[in-house]
Amino acid sequence: MMVLELRGYGRGLARRLKTPKGALFAFLGGSLLGLWIFILASDKARGGLDSTSSFAKPEFVLRCAGLAMFLLVAISAIMTRGINIPPGKLDRVFSLPISRSDFLRYRLWCVVGRTMAGAPLLALLATTKTGHPLGTLLAVPLFLGFVSVVGFFCSLLAAAIEGSRSFAAMMQRLRQLGKYAIVGIAILLVMALLSTKLPDLLPQWSAELQLYLREMITAQTLEQLVYAGSRPLEPFVRLALAPGLAQSGLFLAASLGTLLLSVELVSRTPVDFRELAIEGASSAAKRIRSVGRVGRAASAGKARVGLWAVPHLFGRGPMGAVAWRKVAAIWRKSRGFLGISLFLGCFLLFAIRMLFGDALLVSDNFEASAEELILSGNLGGCVLSLLGTLYLTNGLRFDFREDLEQLDILRAWPVAAWRIFVGSLLPQVAAISGILSVLLLIWFGISAATGSAICGLIFALPQVVFAWVAVDNIAFLFWPVRFIPGQSGQLQHIGRGLLLSLARITFFLLTFGASLASAGGTWWALVHFGDPSDAALIGWVVLVGYCVLLAANAGLALLGGFAFSSFDPVRDRAL
Amino acid sequence: MTESSSPKPVLTVEGLRRTYGESVAVDGLSFRVNPGEILGLVGPNGAGKTTTLRSIAGILPIQEGRITVAGLDIDIEGHRARQHLAWVPDDPQPFDSLTVEEHLELVAGLYGTTDWKRRREDLLESFSLKDKRRALGGELSRGMRQKLALASAWLSEPKLVLLDEPLSGLDPRGIRTARQAIQDIAASGVAVILSSHLLELVEQLASRLLIIDYGKKTFEGTLEEAHTGFEIPMGSSLEDVFFAATRHEAGDKPG
After folding, report:
1. For B100, which of A266, A357, A509, B186 is 20 to 30 Å away at the CA?
2. What is the residue-wise DSSP string for A98-156?
3. What pTM was computed for the model?
């Protein structure tokens, strides 16, 4: 079966390369990969990581990365449970005259083989950190193979205990507690962060908490935790750090042995997985279809009805109704993502605060001038907005990709196309702008950024986020191609993604550039042909820039409406 | 049901032509539907039935020809024309983050339906959806999805309803409910286009027939007129008419 699958994969690859478009996209995708490998190789040639800081030691970095991957795979494996077999293949494989352990072995080697085939790129990246190419190139694929076996085992284990009601209830309680814990920790972090700039408003213990956390991070506690936790990965870490062939022999044997032993042990696990596999196959197929539309975004998740009715945030008219549907989707599918994003944002700002200490604030830093600190604070706010927009638009994708299966229904609605376009994007824009506004306010509390700059950013955010999301959706509506991660045609997908990203960025920069250019032009004209006060000058520049951005967004809304109304559902196809 | 005395049609289709690349799905199709009339749209697989319905609903851009709904051109006054029509696809896909009752609330918002709360309760009752009112769209079975799509169409107070295989996935009780609902809505003056392979159902409900094959109209008229036109004995079923009007193996042409 494995040989047949491999042969089918090869045939699909050759067929896609035969069409001019497939060949072009493959060339672009290959070039991008090649460029990346070249950059990695150049980085490695420059000597790799060579810092004396304990956090930057190759061994520490390797252990951290390994541990993080290990935990991530184990947790996600528990979430999926059982063995994922495509519905079409399920009946065929379960009716074959092969033993349970042979079947498990087949699935295990498929998973291990697929993981190890994709490992060389990661291995190359890892060599830049370790400086020992041979050992690392051997260790990374073996480690990834081992991790996938552990993930497989976790899934089986979760499947075996799934039947227990008390276990399910315990997991439910744990999930609930976890949510409260995350919210609590986020509040504590925000208070600790703001304690320096707003000492009068916050209790004394928030400043003490900040000091305590800083001490903990600078101490050896974290390092000791990482070393203890990564002990089971010892053979792989040692192999990756072995300087030559002779030294790596022993650890290579140990790593290989660990992998083979784990495969053999897992294949003999006495768990009947068939029923759960059948049950899980259809939900997994549904999830994969959803991922094909929206990527690994929060909108690919399952909706849950809450206790409260979904509020009509954007009115009760036709456009309000379009937006209301999206508000429901965001609220019911992405509460977790929104909370985690906010938490991660707080955590990131906390880390920045810990790394830079009080140097970010004017009152505590006597080395830098106040102007420099204010400038860096304001620029930091801009960077935070930009990176936050990119991250959140990728994760919170409640746009037309999510609606592919319902586009027929949407197009039959008695609402103008541009209203459907704007109404569908507004809730996503509002959610992203809201999260970023909170983070900008925290940034204001911990940096020397000025209040007017932060207010300006918060004011401009919805427009900028809308422009980005609109351009992204217009590109999708004009060239709707789905790609399901894991399906064949990755190289073409990378190439196509590269072209689309370039087009998207160019279009976005033109929109944003027009706004900046008009603001600049206004400033020049006022300075040369008039004698305005500073306040009037700033006021006019901001007003003109904002109005142009508003006009550009109105243009994007109309273009989006045109893209939506001329979208031909027949063109929607998998890559 | 017989021809309405009102001469003003709710729907006019003139010279509709639609291609997918080289393949011609609909070729110069013209017909009219009057208020209160149920037009049975039948034809083999790939004859162009769904393409015709999707063009009328404004889902597919018009390549050639003209369609008006309640006197409004679907290509020029798209959303105003769509205000008067309701579309029920063959496999409705409700939104997975809205509950059944919220789907109806959404329709009320989109179409500006007045007194929608009372009508929603009536529709939930008549389509046996009350028990599922808090269920999410993604949790519904095929039959429930079909019922929800019909209830949504009814709530929008349309002048024209397009039904593409409306009874697929329904249990016998659901079929009876839907059949009665179609008859009732037509009796209230709403024009209905019913596309189905269940010829017995079409024969029972349709006041007029439109048979298409290879994207072209092969017959338009009543069942009695078809008997005369195709020289089939009076009293023969729609199935006999169908085979006479489409003289080739069903399903031998994609499209």
Report:
1. B186
2. --HHHHHHHHHHHHHHHHHHTHHHHHHHHHHHHS-HHHHHHHHHHHHHHHHHHHHHHHH
3. 0.72
